[in-house]
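Journal club side-thread
Mid-discussion, someone asked how the predicted structure for our own chain would compare to the paper's figures. Pasting it here so we can look after the session.
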Amino acid sequence: MRVISVVARLMCALALMACDPGFRLYGSVVDARGVPLPGVKVALVCYGADQGSVMTDVKGMYSYSRVGAFGNNCEIQVRFRDEVALAFDLLKYCIKTHVRQTCVEVRIDVKLDRAIQP
């Protein structure tokens, strides 16, 4: 009986993972001259609530992954010194969708003005 219970739990876990896709956000942040900007925060915000964020690395690149798909009322915010420098509508930059207008992959390459550089 114990083996059946473990197998049943594994089957349920696999079924739930299949229903809820993975989400991936990635890209780069550079200045007006194309120089990579490390330490810039890129955040996923839905209905005004932060869903997660990541900082750019020394090459100005960022990558963020999590379970779930996102749709209307979500945006990608590029934050510099804890202020929103730019915001992008998630669905406009979506490169891979799931069901019913939900997004599972977004790539945004950002060029920031010199005025907001360190």
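Post-session note: Helices lie at 2-19.
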